[in-house]
Design brief:
174 residues, mainly alpha, hpI Integrase, Chain A, 3-stranded antiparallel beta sheet, 3 strands
């Protein structure tokens, strides 16, 4: 069975996307999605209660859990960049205040401005996060936890590194 694989952004494309953000909300959406791997629905539902300020982490109640309720809980560490953006935003707001569709439009708008040719969506940013974790030698088990997957097989769908990445890793190990 063929598994459709979205193309993650290259580092250059991710930088282009970051540099194309004009407003504070665009920066928050793009950087938080790139730095946390959150699902777009998880970002849309984010509020102050999800933030562990002292630990610089998010508590996410994600997809799944018994009877399809969002009862699966996971902890996501924040990069300095994501923590700074979230701190500023939630110092003035109690909840995120954007719908899934609104967030998708923001990502699409920034992507169009950046001139990236491939399709860019919040899920592509999640995929980019996953590939970057693998490049940084984060284990697939840890990545599985960060992405909130029940099964390692689901996480492995995200591991389509480019042929260049595979060759580079092989050469670096031998």
């Amino acid at each position: 069975m063929y598994q459709y694989k979205r193309e993650p952004l290259t580092n250059e494309e991710a930088d282009k996307l970051s540099n194309s953000c004009k407003s504070a909300i665009e920066k928050i959406v793009i950087h938080v999605l790139l730095d946390t791997g959150l699902r777009v629905s998880e970002l849309a539902n984010l509020n102050k209660e999800n933030i562990l300020w002292q630990d610089k982490r998010l508590v996410i109640y994600g997809k799944g859990g018994p009877y399809g309720k969002k009862t699966k809980r996971r902890i996501i560490p924040l990069t300095e960049r994501a923590y700074t953006l979230i701190s500023h935003y939630f110092s003035l707001q109690d909840s995120f205040g954007y719908t899934k569709r609104g967030l998708q439009k923001i990502v699409r708008r920034v992507a169009q401005r950046s001139g990236i040719i491939k399709k860019v969506s919040p899920h592509v940013l999640r995929h980019t996060f996953a590939v970057n974790c693998i490049k940084k030698n984060i284990s697939t088990r840890t990545l599985q936890h960060l992405l909130g997957h029940d099964h390692l097989a689901t996480t492995e769908i995200y591991l389509n590194l480019s042929p260049e990445d595979a060759c580079r890793e092989f050469i670096s190990k031998f």
